[in-house]
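LAB NOTEBOOK - FOLDING QUEUE
OPERATOR: T.R.
BATCH SIZE: 2
PURPOSE: Compare the predicted structure-token outputs for two unrelated chains run back to back under identical settings.
PRIORITY: normal
REVIEWER: second-year student, initials M.K.

ITEM 1
FIELD SEQUENCE / FIELD STRUCTURE:
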Amino acid sequence: MLYLIWSVFNILFFLTWAYLAICFLTGKHSIFKKSFSIGYIILIIGIISLISGKSKESTNSSTPSNKPVNIEIIKIEESTLNNLYLTLIRDKETDSILHDLSSSTLTGFISGLKWTHMGISENNGNLTLLGTISWKLLGWTIYTQNKEVMIKESTV
């Protein structure tokens, strides 16, 4: 539910910024009559976030191995808005997890959220997925939340 509220807030904030930018560019400065109004602040924040662009995306620098592997795609968390998927790649011979090649993604309605895969650990047949969720507003990170998801052996 909190993800929905954050996503709607992101969309409303963007629409407010777009309205203010259009009013400013078309010459309808009546909403900007008060000196240093909140409209200017929102407009400046939006312009700065557009100029700064997207942050650098981390790329997977590992090279695929020529070893035979087993690939599993596991749906970990399911909600009405988004899903968390784990792509688990194991060495066929040793059945060990290839951490450099495994990944996880957050899909669905994720406006203002960014999932970053940190790693996978395995204890007694149970997997633990580690990652962070970044809460963003107009491209700026407002809060970063560490997330640890336990995956039971029956799911794998």
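ITEM 2
FIELD SEQUENCE / FIELD STRUCTURE:
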Amino acid sequence: MSISNFIFVGFFLGTTVALIFPQHNCPEYFTYGIEENESYIGVFTAKEPANIKLNFSVMFAWQGSAMIIPMELYPNNKEAAKNIKLGKRAQIYFRFDEVSEMLPVPHMFIFNDELLCNTELNATSYNLYPVDVIIPRFENIQQVRNTLPKMHPIFPRIQPVINIE
């Protein structure tokens, strides 16, 4: 095998390594998503409708390299404010860029001083990234009693391809 073939095979194998979507024990409050521009995001949902301040505290863990873009209200500030005022659960999201090996996983998620998720780490070689955000209370919030369905991210639509032969 020539050196150019070896380099080509190495480059091909290096680009086909799959990204790891880690398991976590937080399905009620956290989900991964993919934006229209194919960026990976992680969306957190508050435990209950907003009737007090929203205090999100997250500790991410991952292996390899990754850049975590600071959280924002999901899907955007305007829609989130409207949803919160209607008494729906607040959502925030992080964008994960330049991930080499494994998407960041929520190691610990605390909402309004209550531990909601705590994922055990099996190895000691994890990168850790803590984030604390307090969102001030919105005025004129309707009181809604746990009758609203959980809000989840809207994923891009995938149009099926029909092959007629």
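REVIEWER COMMENT (ITEM 2): The two ends are 40 Å apart (CA to CA).
FOLLOW-UP: none requested
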